[in-house]
Write a structure and sequence with these properties.
It is built from 7 helices and 13 strands. It is of the alpha+beta class. The protein is elongated, with a radius of gyration of 31 Å.
Amino acid sequence: MEKIQPYIDNIIEWAVSFVPKLLLAIAVLVVGLWLVKKISKIIDSTLSKAKVSPEIASFLSSILEIGLKFVVVLISAGMLGFEVSSLVAVLAAAGFAVGLALQGFLGNFASGITIVFFKPYKVGDWVEISDKFGKVQGIQIFNTTLITPGEKTLIIPNGQVTDGIITNFSTRGHIRLELTVSMPYEESFQKVRQTIREALKDSPYVLQDPPPLIGIEQYDSHNIIVGIKPFINPDDYWDATFEVHERVKRAFHAKGIRVAYSEGVELGPIGE
C-alpha cells in the first residue's frame, strides 16, 4: 500500500487540477457551439433582410459557421492547457497533408466559389447537370442540391458542375416536354397533328408562344412515332405531362383515331 500511495496521490492531484479544466472546456465547447448556431441564424436573417441572393447567403453562412466552430474548438483546447499557436501550426500542417489527399474536396470548394460569383444558375432555377434534371434547392460550399420533378433530392459535387455542361431552363422562362404517341401507318398524319394541336390549344399548362412542336420522330416496324413537344413553365412539369397525355387520349377517342397497340400487330379503337 505504501508503494502505490504516491501514485494514488499523483492521480488525485492530477484529477484536482485537470478535471475542473476539462469540465470548463466541455462547458465552453457546448455553449460555444450553441452560440454559433444562434449566430448563424442571426447571420442568415440579416443577409435575408439585406436582400442578398439566397445562394451567396447560404455560401457565406456556411463559411462563417465553420470558422466560428473552429475558434470555439481552439478556445476549448487552450483551456485544457494546449499551446494554441503550436496547435494551429500542427493543424495547418495536417490540413496541408489532408488537402493533398483530398484534392477533390478542394476542387469542389473552388468550384463552389466559381458558381456563387459567376452565377450560371441560382436557387429556384430548373437546370440539367450531369444529365440530372431538377430545381436548384441550395448551393453549398462543396455541392449543389437539386429537387427532381419526382421529389427526389440530388446532391451533386460542385466539381462535376463546373467540369460539365450546365443547361439552365429558367433563363428562357420555359422548358419543352418530350412526349411521344404511336399511330398506325394507315392513319392520316395531318389529321393526327391537327387533333393534337386542338387538344393542346386550351390547356392551362401548355404555352402557345412558342407554339407546341408536333412531328414524326421515327418510323417503327409496325407504327409511326409522333413527337409531341409543348413548351411549359418548369414548375408545371408533372401537371403538364399528365394533362397533355389525358387531352391527347380524349381527343383521339373523339375523332376516332386508332393507335398501334404495344404488340404491334392488331389495331383497335381507343377508349375515352
